[in-house]
Amino acid sequence: MTRPIEGRARWPALILLCLGELMIVLDTTIVNVALPSIRADLGFTETSLVWVVNAYMLTFGGCLLLGGRLGDLYGHRRLFLAGITLFTLASLACGLAHTQGLLVAARAVQGVGGAVVSAVALSLIMNLFTEPGERARAMGVYGFVCAGGGSIGVLLGGLLTSLLTWHWIFLVNIPVGAAIYAACLVLLPGGSGQRPARGGARLDVAGAVTVTAALMLAVYAIVGGNAAGWTSPQSLSLLGASAALLAAFGVIESRVAAPLVPLALLRLRNLAISNVVGVLWAAGMFAWFFLSALYLQRVLGFDALQVGLAFLPSNLIMAGCSLGLSAWVVLRFGIRSTLGWGLVLATVGLALFALAPVEGRFAPHVLPGMVLLGVGAGIALNPLLLAAMGDVKPEDSGLASGVVNTAFMMGGALGLAILASLADARTQALHAAGMPAPAALHGGYQLAFWVAAAGSQAAAVLGGLVLRPAAPPAAGVQGAHA
Predict the structure, then answer these.
(1) Which domain holds residue 302?
(2) pLDDT tens string 112-136
(3) 117 in a domain, yes or no?
(4) 298, 307, 302: which is closest to 437 by C-alpha?
(5) With a threshold of 0.85, does the pTM exceed it?
(6) Hey, what long-range contacts does 222-226 have (CB within 8 A, 24 or more apart)?
């Protein structure tokens, strides 16, 4: 494998890759704060405003697998640069947008660029750091960025929107993207972190079209499920079409000479189990972030700034544990134990939110759950990524990264939609039974937190007991390619 970056030179390259990922992570939360301003300025309706978020989710979720495989075939560095360029140009279009259509279209292009960057950044890191101790520390830094980026986005979005205008939440990406691109040319020389694609392998176009369309239809059905109804003809037809396309994709991949997703890759035990764990965990965490903010605001009466500050302890602890504690625990106790116990702590944190009373206070009823979720999630992300990527050959790392990111994306979107629906249905039933509005809302959130805790506990069992304890460094996909 060609790897011209050696020794300490790899760490500046790691920081660069993490900055690229941070820009993508920030964009998933920074927009939420500015939605009211965007609605007032461009005249969005309540229904159409969701597409400022959904257009990004649709293309991001749909293009992760494709972006990862393109990186494997044509070069991770090349695709990283292309993704940063596309994301930066789309951010410029978003910032200059003065019509609804242009903003939504530019957000969709942003999602494509973000998917490419996310898919190949992780594979570049895994290929640059092959020694177990260094890899654990590098993944800790990556986890720190992923964990802390959300809270930074909330605060930065509020500041930019309040002090300037909503346009600047996108325009701030322009100098950052340009600096990352320029630094990448210096710190990531051609061929860094990977070897060329084998045997002149070509892109599996039929597989790429079917799986991308299937994922986009699934994301579209999920994000619109609450509004349209989960048993509505729209939702059922979209989910059915997605399932049919996935079935067609499986048939295509079993027959083509150079498949987009070698089916042998999906049979790797740790990768498969890690993806299931990622779906269950992301479902609970996405729903917790959304519903706990509503609990603080609609039940406890916090204002927007107080809600943002309330999340700081959890996000700071999560980021700190990802950066330092997680790597040490993985090296001391192994991937499986660290992942299992981290998810157990997160489960207890979710349960504490379910037990919080309708007239709760921050310090005794909210902060303990926030702390446990911060510690648990902070130490669990690193071993989950290491388990998922550890058995994969370098030439398949981009695809595996895309698979992992897709699992998180789909799990988070599906979990949020389902748990929000459960909470709403429970709230409506309690309200119809004569319960006051705050108590009815509280009852709905309680149910959602209990279900999220159950999913997190199932993830803890899978991660702590079913994962293979260790994977040989050279393990990979046997017979994955023709």
Answers:
(1) 265-465
(2) 999 888 888 877 887 787 777 777 7
(3) yes
(4) 298
(5) no
(6) 222/410, 222/413, 222/414, 222/417, 223/50, 223/54, 223/57, 223/58, 223/413, 223/417, 224/54, 225/417, 225/418, 225/421, 226/417, 226/420, 226/421, 226/424
